[in-house]
Amino acid sequence: MSELMAATGLEKGGLYRHFDSKEDLALESFNFAADLMEHAKFDPPLNTRRPFQKLEEFIRTFANASSPIPGGCPVFNAAVEHDDGNARLRSRARETYQRWTSLLASWVLEAQEAGELRAQLVARNVAAYILCTLEGALIARNLVGSPEPLIAAEGALLDYLNSNRLSTRTARRKL
Q: What is the structure's pLDDT at 6?
């Protein structure tokens, strides 16, 4: 709280006029950080035409774009730091993870429907694999102080997608 008071210039009473508790403050902080992260990582792929390209762009953006907030991903930070603490924060982190996984899964399904990815793939599993691989690489990057884990994850995930890609002729017939 003392760091927050110093950063905002507010006294403890001023903070608690806006938030009923430390847990409420943590939840609002999480919501703000998760929203910034979501827009930074998920919005750029929306500008691509092909569903397969959305997946590629998401992986590249996640691995290479600067984070809008320091310290890594708020979802996975909350999962680790509040696994036995603030139940509301943990629940919100779980909801955010599920929303992100669902969005990625919808892009996988779109790519399958367009004939760009093998239909045998389970979209939700692919989405979880992509997100968890990138999040794990982000944690490793922060741990070792080097972008190498994210670069490796990016390459492995792009290889995985391309190994499950259908020919462009198949995709064109589906359109």
A: 59
Could you tell me if residue 6 is inside a domain? no
Which residues constitute the domain of residue 144?
Answer: 23-174
**Residue 81 structure tokens:** 């730091």
Least confident of 70-84, 89-103, 109-123, 129-143: 70-84
Q: What is the pTM of this model?
A: 0.81
Contacts of 38 (CB under 8 A, 6+ apart): 96, 100
Q: How many domains does the chain have?
A: 1
The two tokens of residue 140 are: 């490793």
| Nearest to 128, CA basis, from 86, 160, 155, 162 | 160
Distance CA 96, CA 117 (A): 26
CA dihedral 103, 76, 26, 105 (to 10 degrees): 10
Q: Distance of CA 152 to CAs 72, 124, 133, 146, Å? A: 17, 22, 10, 11
CATH number at 76 reads 1.10.357.10
- Place 68 in a pLDDT band, splitting at 50, 70 and 90: confident
